[in-house]
C-alpha cells in the first residue's frame, strides 16, 4: 500500500482475471485493458465476469474502468468508466459462493 492506495495486478476470480484492481479508503476500481477492441467491451467484461462482485459487501463504491489501447500511434487511447452500485447477478446457490468467496447470504 502506498499513500492509502492498494494496487493489485491480474487478480484471479472464479470467472476470470481482472487486469488491475485498485482500492482506496472509499473506492474499489476494477480495470480491464484491451488492445484494438473497445473500452465498452472491456467494461462489459468487468460486469459479465463479476470482477467487482467480491467487494459488494465492502461498503466502498465500486467502479469499473474499461480502457482500450490502439495499435496505431495516431489513434490514441479510448477509456470509459462506470460506477457499479447494483449488479444483476443471480443469487448464489452454494454455502460458499465460488464466484466471490463469500457466504451465499449476499
What's the short version?
The protein has one helix at about 40-50; strands at about 5-15, 15-25, 25-35, 60-70, 75-85. With about 110 residues, it is mainly beta. The relative contact order is 0.20.
Walk me through what this model shows.
The protein has 106 residues and is mainly β. Helices cover 9% and strands 40% of the residues. It contains 1 helix and 5 strands. The chain has a 5-stranded mixed beta sheet, with helices on one face. Strand 1 and strand 2 (16-23) form a beta hairpin. The longest helix has 10 residues, at 39-48. It starts with 5 loop residues before the first strand and ends in a 22-residue tail after the last strand.
Amino acid at each position: 500500500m502506498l499513500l492509502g492506495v492498494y494496487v493489485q495486478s491480474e487478480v484471479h476470480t472464479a470467472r476470470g482475471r481482472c487486469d488491475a484492481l485498485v482500492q482506496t479508503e472509499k473506492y474499489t476500481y476494477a480495470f480491464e485493458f484491451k488492445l484494438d477492441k473497445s473500452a465498452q467491451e472491456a467494461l462489459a467484461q468487468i460486469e459479465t465476469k463479476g470482477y467487482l462482485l467480491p467487494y459488494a459487501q465492502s461498503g466502498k463504491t465500486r467502479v469499473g474502468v474499461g480502457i482500450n489501447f490502439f495499435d496505431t500511434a495516431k489513434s490514441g487511447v479510448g477509456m470509459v468508466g462506470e460506477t457499479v452500485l447494483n449488479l444483476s447477478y443471480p443469487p448464489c446457490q452454494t454455502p460458499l459462493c465460488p464466484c466471490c468467496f463469500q457466504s451465499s447470504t449476499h
